[in-house]
Amino acid sequence: MTDIEIPLQAEKTKKYRFFEILPGLLSWSLLLFPFILSYFSVTLAVVFILGYLLLWFVRSIGIDIRAFQGYKIMKLHKSLDWKSMLIELQSGLVPEGLERPKWHYSNIERLAKYPEASRPDDLYQVALVAIYNESRDVLEPTIKSILKSNYDSKKIILVIAYEQRGGPRTEQVSNELIKEYGDKFYHAMAVKHPVNMPNEIIGKGGNITYAAKELKKFLEKKKIDPIKVTVTTLDADNRPDENYFAALAYTYVCCIDPTHISFQPIPMYTNNIWDVPAPMRVIATGNSFWNVVLSLRTHMLRNFSSHAQSMKSLIDTDYWSTRTIVEDGHQFWRTYFRYDGNHKVYPIYTPIYQDAVLSDTYVKTLKAQFIQLRRWTYGASDVSYFAQKAFFTKNKIPKFDTIFKFLRLLEGHVTWAVAPILLAFSAFIPVLFHPQNYAANELPLLVSRIQTLALAGIIATLFISFKTLPPKPSYYKAHRNIFMILQWVYLPVTTIVYSSLSAFYSQTRLMFGLYYDKFDTTDKAVVVKSEKGIKRES
User: Fold this and answer.
1) Torsion angle in degrees (nearest 10) through CA of 16, 17, 22, 28
2) Residue 233 contacts by C-beta under 8 Å, 6 or more apart in sequence?
3) What is the mean pLDDT of residues 380-409?
4) Cα separations (Å) of 241 from 348, 352, 367, 458?
5) 10 Å Cβ neighbour count for 498?
6) pLDDT tens by residue, 453-473
7) Which pLDDT belongs to residue 538?
8) Which residues contact 95 (CB under 8 A, 6 or more apart)?
9) What is the arithmetic mean of pLDDT over 264-277?
10) Separation in Å, CA 390 to CA 48, 299, 333
């Protein structure tokens, strides 16, 4: 299959529009379903609501277990001496007296059987940093974090992909940073993405695609094989863990066929977690928690936020889509169909630290958080893309695989919208229609007891959130720790108002063909302490 691009609006068929409507149609129908059941049969309504709740209760136990397992693995991988392990992969020997994981010895033995596979010394890594109009205060720490890596910076290529629409200040900041830090890398360049490119929406996909094409020219000039180059996409505020590039290099060279693999680190929204308002802390911590869980559910793992692929894979897929605002998640499906289903995502159990949402005022921060989540939930647009490529376009992918992945994709977006509302309110619906019915009256009491038990699961979230917190800034008093616990009273509100409503908002827009025509960037602000006190600066 060669046609993997999202169709233009004029090219969308009735079938394509049906599958754009489908997520929203199912979400709204499922939301109304308890009302319809209650009207016709209180027994069926009670059974449905109770069954749905028990399903999520069991599911939450599994999620909590995965969270603890994921945290344990992440802690281990952060502590490993990846730099030395890369040297051992290269030489094929582990010095006596050193303790290494058992899988390290297995990898050395396996690589010895494939002399044609890449070795660590052959590899170059690209840090592709996309910016719009972020300040130097946001971007410079990202570059410094790359340089602090336990990896030879002379094997890293830094690319700052900046937007012409960001204005002269963005261009100045990008070029100043390249001039100041460029000689510390193998190569560094700033690439300006022009405005008004044909068939592009205003978004990150067009920016990083344009920069990657310039990168390709450089690699050709240096005669560097694209299969020996990894490309990690970063936002301006993304700061890789010191072991990320070494862990990525290790995993990459251990893959005999890295062309068909994407690599996903764990996004952790902790850079500024002490500074953001309590509702944003709850959302950021919940997102970090979920990313830890997903790292162990490899059958569900997809490209998200910062991710990595070989340069060869990017060339084969013509880079990222320039027609969607969710280029990260969409890149998985783009690569999946380009290689007729021969594509997987491997977790990298080291974090990429990112900013939680913060703007220069409290109200703007609340609004910016919703904007970020509605962009993420717009990934429901991939349902129609998947259906067209899987079921109505010739391909060699096994039908069982496409059906399974389609149902997973669809269920995920419908659950994103519906589950928080049903879990919070559905138990009160039957009694509205049957106020004298015993089962209808007892249902809220039974549900409340189950929900009380389920709240024990928040211990997992609290544990991981405190274990992954960066040091508390000196300008905050000790009582800030107390607010880090009390903030969880916001959880029901943030889950419904932000996660659920943003999903309904995006799916409803798709239903009516009200497409996003630009990538709404998330506000980036930093907290600084001066003689006048603590303040936020955009």
Assistant:
1) 170
2) 128, 130, 208, 306, 307, 308, 328
3) 97
4) 11, 6, 29, 26
5) 23
6) 877 777 777 788 888 889 888
7) 56
8) 88
9) 95
10) 32, 18, 10
Query: Which are the contacts of 41, defined by CB distance < 8 A and separation ≥ 6?
Result: none
Tokens of 173: 């900041």
Answer yes or no: is pLDDT of 202 > 70: yes
Q: How high is the pLDDT of residue 537? A: 55
More confident of the two residues 66 and 462? 66
Q: Which residues contact 40 (CB under 8 A, 6 or more apart)?
A: none
Please, which residues have CB within 8 angstroms of residue 536's CB and are 6 or more apart in sequence? 275, 358, 359, 360, 361, 525, 526, 527, 528
pLDDT digits (tens, 9 = 90+) for 92-121: 999 988 999 999 999 999 999 998 888 999
Neighbouring residues of 75: CB distance < 8 A, sequence distance ≥ 6:
467
- The three-class DSSP label of residue 165 is helix
Q: Is the pTM higher than 0.90? A: yes
What whole-number distance in Å separates Cα of residue 231 and Cα of residue 240? 13
Pairing type for strands 239-240 and 344-353 reads: antiparallel
* Res 536 pLDDT > 60: no
Structural domain boundaries of the chain? 9-61+404-450+460-537, 72-370
- Measure the CA–CA gap between 368 and 356, rounded to whole angstroms: 10
Quick one: tokens of 241?
């863990």
C-alpha closest to that of 231 among 129, 156, 308: 308
Q: How far apart are CA 281 and CA 194, in angstroms?
A: 36
- Lowest pLDDT segment from 35-44, 136-145, 525-534: 525-534
Q: Which of 351, 377, 418 is nearest to 145 (CA)?
A: 351
Which residues of 342-423 form beta strands (DSSP E)? 344-353
The dihedral region occupied by 419, where left means phi > 0, alpha psi between -120 and 50, and beta the remainder, is alpha
* Angle subtended at Cα 211 by Cα 209 and Cα 216, rounded to the nearest 5 degrees: 95
Under CATH, to which class is 72-370 assigned?
alpha beta
